[in-house]
Automatic annotation (TrEMBL):
<protein>
    <submittedName>
        <fullName>Uncharacterized protein</fullName>
    </submittedName>
</protein>
Length: 284
């Protein structure tokens, strides 16, 4: 997949979902994804302050997603953290092989390889480098995805947008709500494998098909329905920042936390993806 524009101010850049041998999975935390998620997650009083982070110029949504996950985590803990576009682009380069100034190398990223780079090398900011641990989840398990959202700040998702989702009004605004039942003049509502995008799921008003969720993407808060999420999702992951997170009742702790840390350590020992190599070539 080469990077595609959806407009003059938004670009795509999530390559098709892949798996790596022994990649961390949130099932290592017994009960975390299996427990009953909150029926609603209202964060309307909190501002996660998402930023574009270069995703208007480059297909760096996988890097922007991590940068905005940092900011969402900080917002929940009562402060904010500075993530700059140069930092996001630098990480995009490190994790995908993008060469700044060479558009031929702007080919997006594979989420699991981008997350592996963050685990191994950290996400470097101007004044500090932060290291997440992470785990994947079944993209069809919406209860598990709600648990990730509630317990780990936001869910890091890979989706395949439909052409209808890329509709804009005359002012360049997206539809107020992304839904599978879109107006006919918005275009084809079928998920398009060429339209891979990384975004975050931040909160949700309920668990019914037509209940609204809030997505963080392209520096803004975008509403969608759960049936839209089910239709478009191709992968789901949870990230945890031990340096930033304010532990709460839904945050993994004790044996669950130790198990996820151990799964990340085991994976890192076996991960064979060398630095500065395009993510699509990192296979074993």
């Amino acid at each position: 997949m080469t990077n595609r524009k959806i407009s003059q101010i938004r670009k795509l850049g999530c390559r098709p979902a892949e798996r790596r041998p022994n990649q961390p999975h949130l099932s290592a935390m017994r009960g975390f994804c299996a427990r009953q998620a909150p029926a609603r997650l209202d964060r309307s009083g909190l501002n996660p302050a998402p930023l574009m982070l270069g995703n208007d110029m480059l297909g760096d949504c996988t890097s922007a997603g991590i940068g905005n996950h940092l900011r969402a985590t900080a917002a929940l803990a009562g402060f904010q953290i500075a993530v700059t576009t140069p930092a996001a682009v630098q990480f995009y380069s490190r994790s995908t092989g993008y060469v700044p100034g060479n558009p031929d190398t702007d080919n997006g990223g594979v989420e699991v390889d981008v997350l592996t780079t963050a685990l191994r090398d950290g996400y470097a900011l101007a004044d500090q480098t932060l290291f997440p641990i992470w785990g994947s989840a079944d993209p069809g398990d919406l209860n598990g995805i709600r648990n990730i959202t509630a317990g780990l700040s936001a869910a890091y998702l890979g989706v395949q947008l439909a052409n209808a989702d890329m509709w804009e009004d005359q002012d360049g605004n997206l539809a107020p709500v992304w839904d599978t039942d879109s107006p006919a003049d918005h275009g084809d509502p079928t998920p398009n494998p060429q339209n891979g995008h990384c975004l975050l799921l931040w909160d949700y008003a309920g668990t019914n098909d037509t209940d609204l969720v809030t997505l963080l993407t392209w520096g803004s808060l975008q509403k969608a329905t759960w049936r839209w999420v089910r239709s478009r999702i191709m992968e789901a992951h949870g990230l945890a920042w031990g340096q930033l997170h304010a532990p709460g009742s839904l945050y993994p702790a004790g044996d669950d936390w130790a198990a996820l840390v151990a799964a990340n350590e085991a994976y890192l020992r076996g991960a064979a993806c060398p630095r500065r190599v395009p993510a699509r070539s990192c296979s074993r």
